Amino acid sequence: MQGSGVSVLLVDLNNFTLYPTIPVGSITAALRVNGHKVRLFSPLSAGVSGFRRQRRAKAGGHLVDQARFWSAMTHSGAVRKARQSLRRMITPRSDQTRARIAAAFDDALADRPDVVLVSAYTLYRRVVADLAASCAAQGIPLLVGGPYFNEPDIARLWLGEPGVTAVVAAEPEGFIAPLVEAAARGESLEKFPGVSVQPDAIKAAAPPLAEFGDVPVPDYSDFPWDAYPLRIVPIMTGRGCGWGACQFCSDVTTVMGRSFRSRKANRVLEEIGTLTARHCARHMVFHDLKLNSDLSLWHELLNNLPTIVEDPVWTCAVHTGLEQDNGLSRDELKAARAAGLARITTGLESGSQRVLNSMGKGMQVGRVAQFCADATAADISVRLTTIIGYPGETADDLRKTADFLERNGANVERVMVNRFSVMLGTPIAKRMLQEPERFSAFTLGAADLDEAIVPYVNHGTRAPGYYNALFSVLKAAHKINRRPLSDHAMAFEGVM
Fold first, then answer.
1. Which residue from 63, 102, 328, 388 puts its CA 20 to 30 A from 225's CA?
2. Collapsing DSSP states into helix, strand and coil, what is residue 309?
3. Could you tell me the CATH number of the domain that includes residue 307?
4. Is the domain of 41 the same as that of 71?
């Protein structure tokens, strides 16, 4: 160790293109509060971009979408393999990207940190393997964490990479300081909750943080602000989801999402004021899975944001739900717009009530339509997400989704159409793996641990009219996505 504190190189391998990563900022703050020295390594500083979200569709883009969905859902094994090969070429696992990140990382290692911490999505495993090899050559311990390391098979795979000292399946802010101290001294790390050091002895994830409100204000000072197209501050008011019952959702099964915890409004407002002032920003993205999970906090934001940030502009996701009061009445949405809400996302998922009930969404199609109309009347840009191919979905269900988009398109500015994924750890994935006889339309393959999914073939797509209905959904979505965003929402094009 150097001096009185541990020297830590913290690597951000998440969605690092547009704004800072909240967990990385929180870990940085927790380490510095305890006297440790932190340097941030972001590939963006080396000219490597992360992932961009949906942007305005190009002319004829629905034809590309049709080809993309068909290639994923076809029963032709050769077509699916070709598609998978293409995906691997354009992911961060490509040789060119790996080489650029590895070279920049080796430069960062020149200062000889005591410990390297990596926060990473699972698809960066091969990149991390390169970093771990460099650390091993210099005798530097490397610890890795991320949202999906509570899955034992994923943790085991990563621990098998030479040079990976430990895998952390935890919200680590509460013990990250003593953890890096122990790692720097070469001590055993097995005493720490959720920390695994042997592939054959994977520990259960640490319990969720009960006192989420005690987490320090994230430290974003070392992120590459000049490389971002806009100064956007990410905020999280709570972890987990107040609904938390959707069968397909991986967000509520990951390390941070397993239980819903909300922070006190005064702490959130103080953090917003601190971070926007510190970074000379007025744009914010709320990373809560559903910002209206805690209605009292939601209303505190609407009432107080303009008094804390001058001319705030922000975006968030919400759950339209069946609750009598979901905080999303027309008047409340107008209040949100007055408080700076420019763009709002909610999950439609399907225009079929039968499918929504099967998903456990806890909402009604008609209520989503009303929400879209109310948000538009409040001058808020609406973004919807949909899921194609959920178990039991028929061509008729798909036509209902297309009908919804056609009927409500004037009140929607973006639609994200997602193919159903069997995400590891989700309730629907567990059911499909444990009771395959109940899902006879699906043939499951071996788990892809880099994607945290189970590949499959859905034989239900062979039903008459299925692809015609699917293409109707894509065509309706494309028509919506071709329109430019409202001027006040343009800052969040490609953000959320």
1. 102
2. coil
3. 3.20.20.70
4. no
